[in-house]
Amino acid sequence: MKCTVTFEPDNVAIRVDRGANLLEVGLAAGVHVNASCGGQGVCGKCRVIIETGDVEGEKTEKVSQEEYDQGWRQACKTFVFSDCTVQIPVESRGLRRLVAAKLDMGRADRKIVALKTRPLAEGWQFDPITFKAHVQLSPPTLGDNVSDLTRLLKGLKQQHGIENVSTDIRCLQTMPKLFRSSDWSVTATLMAAPEPETISSVQGGFPAINLVRLEPGDTSGKNLAVVIDIGTTTVCAELLDLKTGAVMAESAEYNSQAEYGEDVITRIVYAQRPEGKEKLQSLVVSSINQVIDELLEQTGSQKKDISFMAAAGNTTMTHLLLGLETRHIRETPYVPVANFMPLVWASDIGIDVPDCVRLYSFPLVASYVGGDIVSGILGSGVFQKEELTLYVDIGTNGEIVLGNRDWLACAACSMGPAFEGGGIKHGMRADLGAIEGFNINPVTLEPMLVTVGRRRPQGICGSGLISILAELLSACVIDRNGKFVRDLSSERIRPGRFGYEYVVAWAGDSGAGRDIEITEVDIENLIRAKGALFAGCLTLLESMSLSFDALDRIIIAGAFGRYINIEKAKRIGLLPDIPAEKFHFLGNGSLLGSRLVCLSGQMLHEAEGIATMMTNIELSDNPAFMDKYMGALFLPHTDARLFPDVSEYLEANSRMILSGRIPKYDSVL
Amino acid sequence: MKCTVTFEPDNVAIRVDRGANLLEVGLAAGVHVNASCGGQGVCGKCRVIIETGDVEGEKTEKVSQEEYDQGWRQACKTFVFSDCTVQIPVESRGLRRLVAAKLDMGRADRKIVALKTRPLAEGWQFDPITFKAHVQLSPPTLGDNVSDLTRLLKGLKQQHGIENVSTDIRCLQTMPKLFRSSDWSVTATLMAAPEPETISSVQGGFPAINLVRLEPGDTSGKNLAVVIDIGTTTVCAELLDLKTGAVMAESAEYNSQAEYGEDVITRIVYAQRPEGKEKLQSLVVSSINQVIDELLEQTGSQKKDISFMAAAGNTTMTHLLLGLETRHIRETPYVPVANFMPLVWASDIGIDVPDCVRLYSFPLVASYVGGDIVSGILGSGVFQKEELTLYVDIGTNGEIVLGNRDWLACAACSMGPAFEGGGIKHGMRADLGAIEGFNINPVTLEPMLVTVGRRRPQGICGSGLISILAELLSACVIDRNGKFVRDLSSERIRPGRFGYEYVVAWAGDSGAGRDIEITEVDIENLIRAKGALFAGCLTLLESMSLSFDALDRIIIAGAFGRYINIEKAKRIGLLPDIPAEKFHFLGNGSLLGSRLVCLSGQMLHEAEGIATMMTNIELSDNPAFMDKYMGALFLPHTDARLFPDVSEYLEANSRMILSGRIPKYDSVL
């Protein structure tokens, strides 16, 4: 259910989900509402008046009973439940938005609902990789004393039409006792993938179905799969109901490997130490076990009902999970051990699931384009569509895929950890208290902060960094080189140990007990990171003799993309300057694809096909890339023709601000 | 090379292999030469005169120099190397053979050469299950930085035309180091069976070839397989060269499980004890490891060159090897866990071979018709031929297969261990010193003994028991019920603790330091055993509405059949009374079939097909079988029409002996 929220006096409207937080709605609409505490309700600056409509919000200390009755609320404590009109009083707002015309309703809408992602791949049949069949067998007699296995296979054929079933020794070892203790009522878990650890019992044909588990009684109602995205930083997982295809729960934990290095390079270095590889394998496995436990606990499910796992990770994570050598991923010429991984027994590598569970690892493309990307391309359906798509996954490495149903090319560029908070003075992950939304009043230079969970600010996460950089740029606080303009009269701008800095949150408002600043050094790091990604995209396009204009759409994948503000990302030159409606958010594309391979045998084969089809363009030691990288170390870019709309906006903004800043600033005070 | 040996004055000729032992030749020809010490040369009774021809034989103490120069030799110490004529002097021989007309040259010939068995299955292509391919890869560069696996797969395709190769995690774990330490010159071992532990890396198709091992350099010249016959008593093995198909060595050891029971029933009982199953598995594995070590030592081969194993055993042995529950094999209604066994990693069950080695276990038919029988049917080619064949494997269980290329039926009957020496006072296995050949002088009742290895007699093995029973019967020492005729004047016949008995060897001649007798109780046990086998054959035939006349051939399989005397086995009713030329010896049929599955993928599928095709006729609780069994407890059978030739022979013999025994006996003395 959607509601339209109209902010006055700016007359800016936005459609949002019912129940949305009003401060976040304002941020998404591009309306400035002063807010210093991130949304926790303690600064009391974000007071608004609800003129019409249905909202929920308790009376707070910052609002008197009389005011409350008149419609005054703290925006950060208010949630909208119908179309409504919200007046921003003069003391809460900054000036009227300077360039309101640029607001893109579609984008804002999309941003708010970005959580609701779904597989975009189409045309797949529900055909889970493992399925269950209950059979009631008749006990053996002297007149019918075929082996237990033969009896089972007959039952599967007669009662379910299932043929060509192979088995494995583990099933046979438990079979006789199980049949006899369950009155010959048993449930077989079958796996539809090519799975013979056996020679066919059927003349001439190889089994297409493998018996992986037997359980007493009828357990056919319970069949679960776990899909895992093995990130360098975070291990995310979903519990799937293979009977319905539904996602029952989600869970995420930090990858425990992180204590041996933030990025893949330091992990690879650690893995070269004696027992290093084994240690890192056991650490990621412990994280996987933890998320599985959480999934089960959330849903009250039982571990024994899990029958399959699919995992996608970057090349290094996939290698470490399977115990493979990683050193050649790091050393030139950057060679992984394998692109296609065999199915393994999950319990063989230490994952605490039943013996029968097989783990599918997504195929890799190259040392820096891994299974998470293949999975994302699968989940997003890029490989099926005629439209030319640029798929971008932003992280320590930026991974980029270009193509459509006819061809796919990819590249990876090293962005460094800046957009994940690494190497940034107050950088942090998108945990509670991380500043993720930021507007600036271009006259007062006062901020509007929204934090994750609307807690007091602790630091700044990736989407916050993009917003801050973009807002400082459009408010002419920093110049196109990312340097602070030195003559601004705001106490928030000051010289610091790392060059000039802007105080995003004062110690009094912050949850960190000290000022939270963004420094010139931080900004340099961010420019290098965005420059690498943009140069990567440009190099990939040019290697196919294409330009950004040719793109039908850009898909932003990854948790990072979830809260990113496209306009602001374009403004700093992180994303190309193409119409906002061409941008799509995928969420965790890796999980989407993993889900699909569990639910459709055809999709599993598509995944293999995608990895085979994808051409990797090597950017390291690529002179074209280096040229483009140097050109991208500017906000948004040295070549204004690449960013026509952004350049025009920044010019217009800059003219207005430089002509009128001081008087307006005074008038507000 | 063959020679013809003619014995005078009987004028009996036989074709034998060059180098054959003269005493054994006489035994095979049905000529009686007194011999009490089994062939060791100590009794000095088997002196003969070489009239013409080339023999080798040292002078012995029992022959003077003058006699030696005249051609006198001890038969047991003499070997023939050309056609020759041998005179049996009056003191060495018994009487002239009474019924010489019955001698079958073909049979005798075949008996002597029975060792030279070969697969009788035809029309198979040499297409070993594992094969090696050496590839020289080019090292990766930035311009060609595909994964190590992809590089290998490209090499296999370009250099050998091998495609659709899947892999497993173990290969990937060693791959990077191996490639780089071997200058990218490596040898891949590939397995042609359906082996994906992986999802295909090839769109649309499943891999038919699995990469199982990588080795540095070019090792493609060395590729070995081990085939194993897992007998209840003995574990036999052969080392195969998969490059040529040649058998490089043979080896055999007792099955170490024997200390926990002689037969499968006691093993099953033991397996039901705590850890009993695991103990028995580790014992048979230790025997397997021993025979493998012997095979390698004999040939100077290296364990690392082994790439595949195939094993055949009866149902219990196969279950115990793979760690499967056996109790239901023993308990009515006699149900095995499975008929078709998955391939397992040999090292997973404790076999000390390289990690990559897979073990194929022959499929089973029923609780008492196992993989050794399926393997024998494969090796003998019964499943390919139009001729109606009865395949008989004699052991503690008699296993019988009837059929041809269109159909196969089988049955198993419990014979007990009598023919393996169990439950027989002086019974023993066919070890050194076991009496395996026996003739009797029907007048003097003096024996002609030949032992295994021509050592002093230690006891009596299966073929000896058949001979003794048959000879006592035709000499009218025992009657058709197996009871001793009480009025015979020979000191060799005497009452004993177990009824009357015949002294086969006096203490002075024996290696056991005491008399070796056969008792009436022994004979009862033997009659029960042979009765069970014969009744089984008859029941199986009748269940198919056939009689013995319909048989085109009978194949005698197993080590036991190797030295069996067909005429004598027919005489006691163990084998049916059909023409001797219809009998064929297969030797260890189980090893023959196992060899074939290693050398031909097609034969591996045939093995599965044979087990699927074979109908088991249950004999336990089968009234038709019980009737026939009761009728068979007679020598040769209560129904003389079933044994027309044997009956006629025994009648004629009996008439001659009863009419003339005493005078002739006296005349010799």
In short:
Two copies of one chain form a homodimer. The first copy, chain A, is α/β, with parallel strands linked by helices.
Specify the CATH architecture of the largest domain in chain A: 2-Layer Sandwich
**What is the approximate shape of chain A?**
globular
Task: Please name the two chains that share the biggest interface, counting residues whose Cβ lies under 8 Å from a Cβ on the partner chain.
Answer: A-B, 66 and 66 residues
The main sheet of chain A comes to: 6 strands, mixed
Give the count of structural domains of chain A. Answer: 4
Taking strands numbered 1, 2, ... along the chain, how are they ordered across the largest sheet of chain A? 14-13-12-15-17-16
The residue fraction in helices of chain A comes out at 25-40%
The CATH class designation of the largest domain in chain A is Alpha Beta
CATH topology of the largest domain in chain A: Nucleotidyltransferase, domain 5
Rg of chain A: 28 Å
Separation of the first and last Cα atoms of chain A: 40 Å
Number of strands of chain A: 29
Going by helix content, strand content and strand pairing, the class of chain A is alpha/beta
Instruction: State mean pLDDT of chain A (0 to 100 scale).
Output: 88
Proportion of β residues of chain A?
15-25%
Total DSSP helices of chain A: 17
CATH superfamily of the largest domain in chain A: Domain of unknown function (DUF4445)
Oligomer designation: homodimer
